[in-house]
Design goal:
Layout: E1 6-10, H1 30-38, H2 52-61, H3 65-68, H4 84-90, E2 94-99, E3 114-115, H5 146-149, E4 152-153, H6 158-180, E5 185-190, E6 199-200, H7 202-205, H8 211-220, H9 225-239
Parallel strand pairs: 1-5, 2-3, 2-5, 4-6
Length: 240
């Protein structure tokens, strides 16, 4: 049996119910919709953490964040923990990472044979929180209303430039794989968008100028099954 090639495309902070594949009335996601139509759409899939780095470490390792000590975005991902990239390499795969994975610590490969871009976030411990100063933020902090006030159109930003590089490098590597053809491959293409800041090039921003339709769609949104089922399952615990 021939080993299948694997292409894993990751987006950052993309809620499923804001895609056409999950029934949103306004948001235009034709490529995601086409993938869902040709494949399988999951209605009950969960991340192991709401934070970026712990969630990615858990996905890579196939372990709970409590088992690998990944509690915040400054937690080190130890090189001693095997990942799916290690396992695939042992099965004869060529493995490549293009884009963000938020690895913290000296090991920036974690089993990937090649990495064709840098990361967009620091790999050291610069984001280690000071628990004695809970209100102190490190560098630019996006997750508040200020990022909404600063939203708008732009031709280029740090994040847009990064995703352009991720796309270019991933496509170039895929062409290399096609030319070589000697072994199965696994490519992870990991983008930072639609993570804030909320700025976009004019051709994307102007897709949503009809604010009336957007507001109506938000008001008409129904919880997707995974959210409603999740909270129903928690109620007996909360009553304790």
């Amino acid at each position: 049996m021939t080993s299948p090639n694997i292409l894993l495309i990751m987006a950052d902070q993309l809620a499923p119910h804001f895609t056409g594949a999950y029934g949103h009335e306004v948001v235009k996601t034709p490529h995601l919709d086409a993938l869902a139509a040709r494949g399988m759409r999951f209605d009950a899939a969960y991340c192991n953490s709401p934070l970026c780095a712990p969630s990615r470490f858990s996905m890579m390792a196939g372990q709970l964040i409590s088992k690998i000590g990944a509690y915040d975005n400054a937690s080190e991902f130890p090189a001693s923990i095997p990942t799916f990239a290690h396992y695939l390499k042992s099965l004869g795969y060529s493995t490549c990472l293009s884009g963000k994975m938020h690895f913290v610590g000296p090991d920036q490969m974690h089993g990937f044979e090649s990495r064709v871009t840098t990361d967009i976030y620091p790999s050291d411990f610069a984001w280690t929180p000071n628990w004695q100063k809970a209100d102190e933020r490190i560098d630019k902090w996006y997750h508040n209303m200020q990022t909404v006030k600063e939203s708008g159109q732009t031709m280029a930003s740090f994040q847009i430039d990064y995703d352009d590089e991720v796309e270019f490098a991933a496509k170039r590597k895929l062409f290399d794989y096609a030319r070589d053809g000697s072994q199965p491959w696994c490519m992870v293409a990991s983008f930072i968008h639609p993570h804030d800041p909320y700025v976009a090039r004019p051709e994307w921003w102007t897709l949503y100028t009809d604010t009336t339709s957007i507001c109506r769609a938000i008001l008409n949104m129904q919880p997707i099954p995974l959210v409603s089922g999740y909270w129903r399952g928690l109620k007996p615990i909360l009553r304790l």
